[in-house]
Amino acid sequence: MPSQDHDLASMAPKKVYKSSRRNRVPLSCEPCRSRKLRCNRERPCSNCTVRDERASCKYESPKNGSAMNPQHHASKQRGSMQQRINHLEDLVKNLIAQNQKLPITPEGVETGPSFKDSISDASDSTHSPGKTVIDGGHSVYKGAEDWYDVLQEINKLKQVWSESQDAQPEYNVPPTLSNMVDGSSLLFGQVQRTDKIELLTTLPPKHQVDKLIHHFFDRDNFPISIVPILHEPTFMSEYAEHWEDPTKTSAIWLGLLFSILSINMLAYQQFGEPPDYEGMSESLFQLYRLRTAQCLIIGDIGKCLPYTIEALRLNATAELNRKDDNSRGLWIMTGVIVRAAINMGYHRDPSQSQSITPLQAEYRRRVWISVKEIDDMASFVVGFPRVTSGNFEDTREPRNLYDWELSVDLTMLPPSRPMSEVTPVAYLIAKARLFQALGQITDFNNIPTQGPYEQILDIDNNLIKAYQDLPADLRMHSQEWDYTVSGKKATSSNMQLELLYHQGICQLHRRFIAKGRMDPQYNHSRERCISSVLTLLKFQHIMEPFFYRFSRARKVLTLSAMILFLELECRRKMPDTTNTVSPGSDDLLQVLSTSCAYWETAQTVCDDAQKTYKILSGMLSSFQTSLASSSPSQPETPRPPFEFPGMSSSLQPGNANFSDDKDWLSMSNEMNIDWASWDVFIEGAIFETED
């Protein structure tokens, strides 16, 4: 006999449970859903447009009911948003109350505890400059005033608002495309947002990527200098995990992989393509460069995810080594990289955070010094101010160690090797130190009012010290200037350091060439500048022809020749009143003649070399004719000023320092040469010659 409880249970009304799943309106059109295609949600969408099925491109409308009732959902979202706003208001009130209770320093900054193992003696100060917070995979820098919680709450508020907007019924609202301003570098091209599936389909097969990764980490044979900011064993472990399930790979890490592939293609394009990539390296470089940008957009560089700065920095390496002149775009891009690194706390030494392992700490130091180096380099090349010139960072230099000395289970860093032992990190450190001195030149040249001459001498001494401190294996030696005899070629890294040093001397002292002939006080600058110019032009003897394809190499060589022509014009206008020893005018003309011969040969590999050759050979011919017609026993016969082919009349030297109408030496500190206008002339579209 059934129990009474069973009878009562059978008589009780049964509850009907509804599924808690939201019946969301499909966002794709009906044809795309049936074909399982990605719909761009336009009306009509691109898929229906391509198939000429515009009429069938229809979207499902929201249905009435409790699950999709807009008013009910909006009311619920408003309540959630109101709670967020109230919470945010409470946070602000609490912070205000805390600030009123804490003692204030004379600078108006809250007092706080000093950091352990800080480089600066923080224990002697009540100033708390902030700290780096490692939260899971995120690395976030919290400033001196603790607004981090407020910012987090605002982010949650934005997330709730975004969910509220996504849940609203979709009518005739076109989707917003994520386009970026036009330009030459990452984040400045017409980059449209895409999804991860499309990015993954762009990757080559694994066996091809394996070869490219091996080529990238082969530092002894890879032709482009790569900053050692990736721990190869760690990266290879993550690389293996990626191929196990590519869909789980983060967009930022995928951007890092694409940046590595793009640098490989750039190396093939510039230094020779293997058979597998013959005729394809340039187009693949542009594709992988685009994919890097799209990955960083999807991953959002503001989210402080791992490998964000590494991906940005390697992309900057690709931009820096391009043949075309993208110096201004690179300079703007480095500002983004520096600020993203500061946002993640790279400017503070990792020893201040106990949650950062020794391996992570050392690579954070490498990343930060590489960020400073690219900022100094971009500013030096374009002549604009640096971002990292302030005293807001205390990150130590990385140690001179090999990658194999560092591991994940490391508990204490090994001692640094001497700089005389050239590891990949030694070149990074030496180059960063040299750029620190070159950055002082950039800062000085950007001062609105010119500083005292003594300051230039101080900068010059700092530059000399940075150059002399370079390890012997990173400096060029006499036998490398004539490798046809010695058989020893200089490495591209050593050549770059030598070029940068002498280019810095020219930028610092070129304004005093004219004054050095009138006032012995400035003769040091004149001699230093001419000596470095002669060294720069000597590089043409050891440069491979393809180097003329690089705009920066052409600009440095052209500027060097221009300085010698100006020195010759100074000598013609005013004899040397000082008892200095420098190359004679005939020697300078011989150097310029040799330089023009190299430019003539380079015409076969670079169209711009042909334009440069026409200009310099015309100037050389004019000076040779003038000197040949002059007799030592007679004063020089005045000659018409040389005119630059293709240069506008406002920039012609005949209107300034080459004219006999005025005392041209007293008209300007730089022989009446506007070096900014000259730089624009060299890099701009006006650098044209008539056939």
Structure description:
The chain is mostly helical. Among the domains are: 27-60, CD2-Gal4 (Irregular), CATH 4.10.240; 76-167, no CATH class; 182-324, no CATH class; 476-631 and 648-683, no CATH class. It has helices spanning 4-11, 30-35, 46-50, 70-101, 148-167, 196-202, 206-217, 232-244, 251-271, 281-299, 308-320, 327-343, 358-382, 424-445, 453-468, 483-486, 492-509, 513-518, 523-538, 551-573, 585-602, 607-628, 675-683, and strands spanning 131-135, 138-142. A two-stranded antiparallel sheet has the order 1-2. The chain is globular, with a radius of gyration of 32 Å. Mean pLDDT is 75; it is low at 1-21, 64-73, 102-128, 165-185, 633-672 and 684-691. This is Zn(2)-C6 fungal-type domain-containing protein. One of its GO terms (cellular component) is nucleus.
Largest sheet: 2 strands, antiparallel
Q: What portion of residues is helical?
A: 40-55%
For the record, give the distance between the C-alpha atoms at the N and C termini, rounded to a whole number: 114 Å
Count of helix runs: 23
> Secondary-structure element sequence?
HHHHEEHHHHHHHHHHHHHHHHHHH
Proportion of β residues? under 5%
Rg over CA atoms, rounded to whole Å, is 32 Å
The spatial strand order of the largest sheet comes to 1-2
Q: Poorly predicted ranges (pLDDT <50, ≥5 residues)?
A: 1-21, 64-73, 102-128, 165-185, 633-672, 684-691
Cα shape: globular
Q: Work out the number of β strands.
A: 2
What average pLDDT do the residues reach? 75
* Helix/sheet category: mainly alpha
InterPro entries: Fungal_TF_Env_Response, XnlR_reg_dom, Zn2-C6_fun-type_DNA-bd_sf, Zn2Cys6_DnaBD
Organism: Talaromyces marneffei (strain ATCC 18224 / CBS 334.59 / QM 7333)
GO molecular function: DNA-binding transcription activator activity, RNA polymerase II-specific; RNA polymerase II cis-regulatory region sequence-specific DNA binding; zinc ion binding
Keywords: DNA-binding, Metal-binding, Nucleus, Transcription, Transcription regulation, Zinc
